[in-house]
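Practice problem: predict the structure.
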Amino acid sequence: MSNCHDGGTDMAKKTLKKKAGSKRGFATEAPRDIWLAGLGALNVAQKEGGKILEEGSKLFEKLVKEGQGVEGKTRKVAENAVGDIKGGVENRVESIRKQASDNWDKLEKVFEERVARALGRLGVPTSDDIQHLAERVHGLAERVKTIAEEDGIAPVAVAPKKKTTKAKAKPAAAKTGKAKSVARELKAKTAA
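Answer:
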């Protein structure tokens, strides 16, 4: 396109020089020729501009189609990346939750041990101590019952041995009270 333009400019210069050389028609013909050249340039520009606009429109439509394809690919990549990040975050949260639970269990165990040591220093029996005592009382009650039956004393009902838990600390104390009353009855009968 630049060659055509340069060639047209050279031609216009030659024409102007010719006309300028002939003094008679330059004043009237040169401005008219310039005017006509301008009109021709405008007409060519309009024709070329129409073609350019038409080609530009086709190019624009082609670019829109390309953009849609790229957008689809980009969306898939972005969704996959978000999914990967979400999965990683969920795994990390679960790991932190498990670690927190484990730490809480360790803290709870340390607290229980320290409380048990403090209660032991104060002389407060533990649930294991109470369980052991309950077993001894039950054994003594069985022996008292056996001795009472051998001596012909009315049998005393002995509760079956039960495993006590922390919540059943009071029944163990109640058994101790029963054992004492049986022992008192036994002493009273033996003294009589």
